[in-house]
């Protein structure tokens, strides 16, 4: 008889902490649909982020601001159903994390109740400490997000490198004290990210933050060549699915127009 396979171990907030404590790098990628999430989960990615970046890479908007809570729930439900190993984190979209705290609690509760996902991500640090604590107290794990905050784009006047070490360290420490299980650090100099990581004990996940963090996150569309236009310095393309998809579509078009598809073998 074949040997019994060990059950797949679910990544949890505790196992992420253990990874940080062992200095084992954490991997995180975005996912917005069932097939992509299943592939990433089977590839062993530790954390899947249903990011509000879907407003840009899926919906075609210029910022993350237009995506709604109902749309986030729709996409998160697909990802939550696909992931059998990864921890799945869902962004609280604008303005669910900016207005009254009770609304943030209700939005976070919707995530875990309606999608099967496990945690939410909330932009902000010290000024969001009360909100983070309230959501965690309500039973929903929170990943904090410091540095560049895309939902704050109009206040900041653009996507800018964040350099204020003292403020960013204070933000991360306040988020940890409020109960955040991890801190995402976006678009800061590597030395600043290292200072933040040194100042907290929870995992830090970097995007455009150098190597001195507990793990890395990127937008999946960026790493497989499915985005167009501006590509951030901090991303890397690991495959060119955009060109492959274009070639497949062109081949299909030519075969249909030339009468080569469907063939007799592909007909009933």
TrEMBL record:
Its EC number is 2.1.2.11. Keywords: Cytoplasm, Magnesium, Metal-binding, Methyltransferase, Pantothenate biosynthesis, Transferase. Its cofactor is Mg(2+). One of its GO terms (molecular function) is methyltransferase activity. Mg(2+) binds at residues 52, 91, 123. Its main location: cytoplasm. 3-methyl-2-oxobutanoate binds at residues 52-53, 91, 121. It is an enzyme of class 2 (transferase). Binds 1 Mg(2+) ion per subunit. Belongs to the PanB family. HAMAP family: PanB. This is 3-methyl-2-oxobutanoate hydroxymethyltransferase.
């Amino acid at each position: 008889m074949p040997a019994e396979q060990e059950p797949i171990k679910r990544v949890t907030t505790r196992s992420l902490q253990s990874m940080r404590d062992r200095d084992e790098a954490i991997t995180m990628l975005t996912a917005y649909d069932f097939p992509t999430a299943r592939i990433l989960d089977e590839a062993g990615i530790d954390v899947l982020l249903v990011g509000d970046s879907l407003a840009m890479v899926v919906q075609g908007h210029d910022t993350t601001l237009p995506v709604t809570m109902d749309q986030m729930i729709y996409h998160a439900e697909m990802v939550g159903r696909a992931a059998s190993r990864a921890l799945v984190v869902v962004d609280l979209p604008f303005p669910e994390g900016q207005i009254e705290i009770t609304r943030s609690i209700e939005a976070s509760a919707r995530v875990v109740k309606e999608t099967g996902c496990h945690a939410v991500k909330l932009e902000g640090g010290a000024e969001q400490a009360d909100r983070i604590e309230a959501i965690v107290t309500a039973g929903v794990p929170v990943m904090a997000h410091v540095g560049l905050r895309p939902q704050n784009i109009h206040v900041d006047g653009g996507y800018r490198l964040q350099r204020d070490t003292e403020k960013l360290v204070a933000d991360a420490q306040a988020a940890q004290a409020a109960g955040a299980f991890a801190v995402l650090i976006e678009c800061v100099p590597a030395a600043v990210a290292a200072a933040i990581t040194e100042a907290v004990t929870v995992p830090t996940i970097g995007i455009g933050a150098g190597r001195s963090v507990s793990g890395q996150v990127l937008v999946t569309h960026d790493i497989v060549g499915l985005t167009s236009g501006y590509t951030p310095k901090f991303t890397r393309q690991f495959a060119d699915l955009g060109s492959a998809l274009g070639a497949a579509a062109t081949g299909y078009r030519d075969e249909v127009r030339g009468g080569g598809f469907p063939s007799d073998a592909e007909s009933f």
